[in-house]
Amino acid sequence: MYASQEARDADIATLGVASPGDLRSRLMASTELFDREVSDLPDDKWETVIERTPGKPAFSARSTVLMRVREVEIHHADLGVGYTAADWPAVFSTLVIDSMRKRDWPTPFQVLARDLAQTRSYRRGRAHLDRDRHSVGHCVVADRTRRRQHPDRRPRRAA
After folding, report:
1. Model pTM?
2. Cα-flanking dihedrals φ and ψ of residue 79, to 5°?
3. What does the pLDDT look like over 102-114, one tens digit per residue?
4. What is the domain extent for residue 134?
């Protein structure tokens, strides 16, 4: 997807100072290209292995669809236009939390997904679902020694 980590970093830096119009144009062009490529991909190519940058972890072409959804939702919340993680659909929040199972976590921690009424504990890359804990509102990330609420995960007030 990128020729090198340096090329990826340069692309991100360029986009970081781009105008809103340029960002919109780039988003629309990449969305159209992605849609066309996904629509045209033959069934036997979905398991093709792709590297984001050479030498980094590889993934299947099939994974790019969910990667694209994550990129759009997460970076939409980064834009400072009133859309935050609290606005993510429950299905997307579940996707993000579930995708964390694939990583190796050196320090155990918990994610309390209050709006999903679930708690997940992560240990050495394995997530454990604890359906006995229920709450409503927003996500809280906690480690073994203390619980802390991320400042961007405040509950929304009813209108």
Report:
1. 0.64
2. -75, -15
3. 777 788 888 888 8
4. 104-153
